[in-house]
Specification:
single chain; about 240 residues; four-stranded parallel β-sheet; two-stranded parallel ribbon; 8 helices; globular
């Protein structure tokens, strides 16, 4: 919005979307709000038709819809919960990407960024969420190959535990420990939404004109630190 782009915020939670939009408008942005459930294929197609006809050609898409999950074993996981996570996290990514890219093909240009996760690279005790984010990573790579011939770039970012309202709620409920989150990466810092946004803006920009099929960790070094810190012959004081 700050760069002068026309922005469409699509969400199930229209009240929250309008709150974000109002803030951007007060800063001079041109922002529209639409309702969407990304697990509804027809609703996704209708959304893109509405935008293309009523607002203008879609040049860039950020697909960030997703459902979190608390730790659980596969045996104890509720099947309905697992199905809903996959419907939103994986199938939603599929539907949004294909709907966007199909329209971008006519213009032989476009950029898409999906929200993967550190879960896309590591095994964690959140079976449906973990598998869904692995699927997002590989789907991103598949779509990059399918649509690259049309000048469309498809990438993803892989955030670590990011202090979003959803994660903050889990911290408040005792399901997450912020100090453990901070200590889990190579950089002993918390990651906030603005850090993820900066990476997304880069991947959508002309600076990333020849980058596609990449899932970029934005994780304060979490991905590398897990294997490094797990080395069994730890050296006392190493890195201090």
């Amino acid at each position: 919005a700050a760069a002068g782009e026309v922005v469409v915020i699509a969400d199930r939670n229209l009240e929250a979307a309008e709150t974000v939009a109002d803030g951007l408008r007060r800063s001079g942005g041109t922002v529209h709000v639409r309702a969407i459930d990304v697990a509804d294929d027809k609703a996704v197609e209708d959304l893109f038709d509405d935008i293309e006809v009523g607002i203008g050609p879609v040049g860039a898409v950020v697909h960030s819809a997703g459902i979190l999950q608390n730790a659980v074993t596969t045996e104890r996981m509720d099947r309905a919960e697992a199905d809903r996570v996959m419907d939103v996290n994986y199938r939603g990514t599929w539907s949004v990407n294909v709907a966007a890219a199909r329209r971008m093909k006519a213009r032989q240009a476009g950029a898409i960024v999906n929200l993967a996760s550190i879960n896309s690279f590591a095994v964690m005790p959140i079976p449906a969420y973990n598998v869904s984010k692995v699927a997002v990573r590989h789907l991103t790579e598949i779509l990059a190959c399918e649509y690259g011939i049309h000048g469309i770039r498809v990438n993803a970012v892989a955030p670590t535990y990011t202090i979003t309202p959803a994660i903050q709620a889990r911290i408040d409920s005792g399901h997450r420990d912020p100090e453990k989150i901070k200590d889990s990466g190579a950089l002993k810092v918390l990651v906030y939404p603005r850090h993820i946004a900066d990476g997304i803006v880069f991947l959508l920009s002309e600076q990333a004109a020849v980058i596609t099929g990449v899932t970029l960790p934005i994780d304060a070094g979490w991905t590398v630190a897990q294997a490094y810190n797990g080395y069994p012959a730890a050296v006392e004081g190493f890195g201090q």
